[in-house]
Amino acid sequence: xxxxxxxxxxxxxxxxxxxxxxxxxxxxxxxxxxxxxxxxxxxxxxxxxxxxxxxxxxxxxxxxxxxxxxxxxxxxxxxxxxxxxxxxxxxxxxxxxxxxxxxxxxxxxxxxxxxxxxxxxxxxxxxxxxxxxxxxxxxxxxxxxxxxxxxxxxxxxxxxxxxxxxxxxxxxxxxxxxxxxxxxxxxxxxxxxxxxxxxxxxxxxxxxxxxxxxxxxxxxxxxxxxxxxxxxxxxxxxxxxxxxxxxxxxxxxxxxxxxxxxxxxxxxxxxxxxxxxxxxxxxxxxxxxxxxxxxxxxxxxxxxxxxxxxxxxxxxxxxxxxxxxxxxxxxxxxxxxxxxxxxxxxxxxxxxxxxxxxxxxxxxxxxxxxxxxxxxxxxxxxxxxxxxxxxxxxxxxxx
Amino acid sequence: xxxxxxxxxxxxxxxxxxxxxxxxxxxxxxxxxxxxxxxxxxxxxxxxxxxxxxxxxxxxxxxxxxxxxxxxxxxxxxxxxxxxxxxxxxxxxxxxxxxxxxxxxxxxxxxxxxxxxxxxxxxxxxxxxxxxxxxxxxxxxxxxxxxxxxxxxxxxxxxxxxxxxxxxxxxxxxxxxxxxxxxxxxxxxxxxxxxxxxxxxxxxxxxxxxxxxxxxxxxxxxxxxxxxxxxxxxxxxxxxxxxxxxxxxxxxxxxxxxxxxxxxxxxxxxxxxxxxxxxxxxxxxxxxxxxxxxxxxxxxxxxxxxxxxxxxxxxxxxxxxxxxxxxxxxxxxxxxxxxxxxxxxxxxxxxxxxxxxxxxxxxxxxxxxxxxxxxxxxxxxxxxxxxxxxxxxxxxxxx
Lengths: 399, 399
Description:
The structure is a homodimer.
Chain A: H1 21-29, E1 35-36, H2 49-62, H3 64-68, H4 77-89, E2 99-102, H5 104-116, E3 122-126, H6 131-137, E4 143-147, E5 149-150, E6 153-154, E7 167-170, H7 184-196, E8 201-204, H8 220-224, E9 228-233, E10 245-248, H9 254-265, H10 270-280, H11 284-310, E11 316-317, E12 325-329, H12 336-345, E13 348-349, E14 351-352, E15 365-369, H13 375-398
Helix pairs in contact in A: 2-10, 5-6, 5-9, 11-13
């Protein structure tokens, strides 16, 4: 702020707030005619509109005063009970009294950062990692500490160097952006090493239910107990527009997270919580989720086929077993950030990889989403992208 | 955290997070048979249930995909346009592009604190002031600076001492907890003095529409221009369970508040924003608000009559011209905090005044809400409270 007449002085942390790179890119890609493989938007066809409409009508008929009144900061009791039962099916024992309903799981990240991070605190993160988490933690002025990773996630031996970190932030299932999952044996080794070095785990699991080949192993939190916080979301199983997520917190953190939640927005909209509960309470997800999985599996397979058919030699990727994203490593020295404007000209958009690295890191990779557009458009988009990459390679050879 | 085995280390700011005194009191007052004059809960009879039900059905029929998808962090465009037009009626020119929709106005307070307050920053506040704001700002570790006040609000000459404060947080209309309003002339003087001393204003106006005698003067922000942030809420005009509020921000702050909003919860639920817009778009409030005002005016008058009829000599209060609260000053040395358990025994609850003072200040005052219970119950509750106060006075005389 250089205006000398302005009475406003910003907090130091405001310098760590920056425009979301992805949101800026998404604006570009809203141009007509662009096939966007950039956004992480769930397919709107998968939203349970009819069930939501019925549930909304029921809530406003049977419990309007409770749904529209101020409510407990902890969240709606029956929804917390339901979550507890649901998590037990995934192997996580969660006392409903330790479940805090949040305004999307993004708020869970904000609250965790607020309660744990001092200026200069170390926060260990995967490379790459979820950009939204970097943005949620950044205003609390941490030093991000990269955890060495391979195709199975963070290396267990990386946790020794993370000793003293306020948390290790991990996404074990179909990670955004890499699509990578941590296998069961690696999970055990990570939990053991994190415990040995006193590194608490913040486990973020927005994509766990979106598996297309087999269900993921139990969460890290199931083994880590009081040494882990677990974050979940309704955004991918119902709809993101409800902004419903939750945190399962250990005894050492629950009261502070709850107080931070009160200070942040008093409580998550009671109307939304009751509508979601009405939708899910009688096993709706048991039929809804298989349909969502089948849809996304087709799209995942279409993208895998398109990548195999069109990408030039030297590109590298793993087929993800769930989630929403392929992560493509480009041939040496092709810069995904520099390539984006040409891709948009060619009618396709993606998210360059660089912002997903806490140190700004690698620019030779990009993220492609397969959940928003149809298989035909996926093929068309990947073909256009392949053309742009091939052109960049030709230019390099010619130079 | 004294457990040596725990891997968790809390951020320093976590020490400034504390259980909400009011929420703890509210738990007490949920006991059956207690007449609660404690909570600030709007009368559920005033919620526009039918309009909400129709709007929800319409939104999920006509725009389900947009309502349930991720959405812009700024908020729903048509709702921001509507807010701009609505604020113009109150004398505040607000560019829709500078309106940020928040998850309740509590989130507006959190974002303002996040963007403006460094550890040790001074934040000037009225005495008493809204407890929820103290709680929202506290984690950012400000030093609260009391502004000297009289029955017309903060004294203009108090702003000289506030020079260098990151903000002066003010509630000009029917303040929570004091019920006090700032008259037009005092508003002008405050804006002039704040500008002269470079003190930016954060104006919180959740109660402005709840006037029972005459509409309040234009907001401070109308005169302060770029030197003020304005916070508003749908909680008192529609229903708090939607969690819808908004911030009107100057150019110097809007981008940072928006980025803080993205980091905090991505966006306020699009479903809720669209439902609220459907309810209000065609002038619904023009008939709804007069009905709400008429209801609350009856209850305000009932409480005024009850206080006049029952309270012992030495109690002092002003009849509020709007809002939800009476603020009662007790005879010297009667302690409202110490008295609460006896009041609850006698069947009535209130909120002691102490937590509303940033310095823990005065304990000889209490807050009474007139919006939640019927006129008959108000009379009954005030009569019980009067008995307890009279008893305390007798005990003091006897001692």
